[in-house]
Amino acid sequence: MASPNTTPSKLLAAFAICGLAWAAMQGYIIHSFGFTWLTAITDSVLNVALLAIACWLINNNLRYYQPDKESYFYLFIWCAALAAACVAGCRYILPLFNMGDVYNNFLQQSLVLRAFTVFLAIGWMAMISALWYTQLDHKRTEERKTEAEKLARDAELYNLRQQLQPHFLFNSLNSINALIGFKPDMARQMIHQLSDFLRGTLKKDEQLLVSLTDELAHLNLYLEIEKVRFGHRLQTEISCDKACGEAMLPSLLLQPLVENAIKFGLYDTTDAVTISVRAEMEEQYLIIMIQNPYDPKTSRPRKGTGFGLSGVQRRLYLIFARNDLMETHANDNIFTTIIKVPQL
User: Fold this and answer.
1) Is 162 exposed, middle or buried, given 0-12, 13-18 or 19+ CB atoms closer than 10 A?
2) Residue 301: pLDDT above 50?
3) Could you give the 3-state DSSP secondary structure of residue 304?
4) What is the pTM of this model?
5) Torsion of CA 259, 265, 270, 275, to 10 degrees
C-alpha cells in the first residue's frame, strides 16, 4: 500500500504540460482535415478533459493501491473501461454542439482510432503512476528501515557506553572505602574527583563526537582517580600534537582503552608502570596510540564485562561502519592499542 499523500507538484505539472500538448496536437490534426479551428478546439478540449478525468481516476487508484503481478489483468480491464467511457463521452456529447453532418460522420469514423489512442494514453498513465508510486513506496520503506537501523544503532551505542559507568564506579567506591579508615583526606579528595568525573560523563551522554581536547580533559579526571587508587605505581604520559587538538572522536572512547592498559599493566606487578597516550594527525585520520608494559609471565587474559577493547571496536563500527579502525599488538613486553578515527 502506498502512502496517500498529495501527488507531487512536479508530477502534476508534467501531466498538465502533456495534456496541453495533446490538445494542441489533436486540434491541429482535426483542423488539417478541413474543419474550422472552433470545431477542432471544441473536439480536442472535450477529448482532453475526458482523458484527464480518466487519468486522474487511474492515478488516484494506483496512489492508494499497488497491484501485485496477479492483479495487472484487472488494471488492464480498468484502463480499457476508462478508454471506452472517454470515447462514449465524445460520441454522445460532441454532436450536441451542432457542428454539422460532415463532422458527425468524421466523428463516427474516428471512434475506433480515438479508442485506441485514448487507451494507450491511459495505459501510459497507469504505467507511469505505478512506477512512480512503487518507487515512492520503496523510498519510504528504505527511510523507515534506515531510521529503525539508526535507532537500533543508537540504542546499542548507549548500552555500550552505559556499561562503563557501573564497572568503574564499583572500583572507585571500593578504593574510597579502603581509604576512609586510614587516609580520610584522600578519600574525600577521591569523592570530589569521582563527582567531577561522573558529572562530566553525564554531560557527554548526549554527544556522539567531541574534540580530542575535551576527551583528554575528561580522561585526566579518570586518571587522577586511578592515581589515588594506585599511588606512585601509576605514571602517565600524554602527548598530543597541536594540529589534532580540535580533531573529533567518539565521546568516552579513551577511558576503556586506558582502563584496559592499567588493568593489564598494574594488576600483576608491584612495580611502577607508565601508561602512555599519544595522538597525532595522519592525512584524514586522528591516530591515537595507547601503550602499557606487561609481564608475559604473569599477565593473562581475564574474564570481565567485555566492554574493553571489543566494546571500543564495536562502537567504532557502529559509528563509522568500518572494522579496520583499531589494532593491537604486543612487542618487547609492550602492549599497544592503536585506533584511527576518520575526520568527516
Assistant:
1) exposed
2) no
3) coil
4) 0.57
5) -80
**Radius of gyration of the chain measured on its C-alpha atoms:** 37
d(CA 266, CA 76): 78
Residues 174, 176: Cα–Cα separation, whole Å: 5
Closest CA to 256 of 343, 167, 182: 167
pLDDT digits (tens, 9 = 90+) for 205-235: 555 788 999 889 888 888 888 887 788 888 9
Whether the pLDDT of residue 197 is over 70: the answer is yes
Domain limits, the chain: 9-145, 163-342
Q: Strand, coil or helix: what is 7? A: coil
Return the SS3 of 326. Answer: strand
Closest to 2 in 3D by CA, of 145, 131, 172: 131
The predicted pLDDT at position 61 comes to 81
> What is each CA distance from 38 to 44, 90, 100, 115, in whole angstroms?
10, 16, 13, 23
Q: Residues with Cβ < 8 Å from 172, sequence gap 6 or more?
A: 190, 194, 225, 229
Give me the helix-helix angle, 254-266 and 212-230, nearest 10°: 30
In the block, cell 602517565 appears at 236
Domain 163-342, CATH: 3.30.565.10
Asked if residues 115 and 83 have their Cβ atoms less than 8 Å apart, the reply is yes
- HSE value, Cβ hemisphere, 13 Å, CA-based, for 306: 3
Q: How far separated are the first and last CA of the chain, in Å rounded? A: 38
Using the structure block, give the residue that is written with the C-alpha cell 592499567.
262
What is the Cα–Cα distance from 161 to 186, expressed in whole angstroms?
28
Q: Select from 308, 305, 301, 296 the least CA-distant residue to 339.
A: 308
**Helical segments of 267-330, H only:** 309-320
C-alpha span between 119 and 51 (Å, rounded): 9
Residues 10-22: what's their mean pLDDT?
77
Q: For 261-289, how does the pLDDT look when each residue is reduced to its tens digit (9 = 90+)? A: 888 888 767 778 899 999 999 888 999 99
> Nearest Cα to 177, choosing from 166, 168, 186?
186
Q: Identify residue 181 by its one-letter amino acid code.
A: G
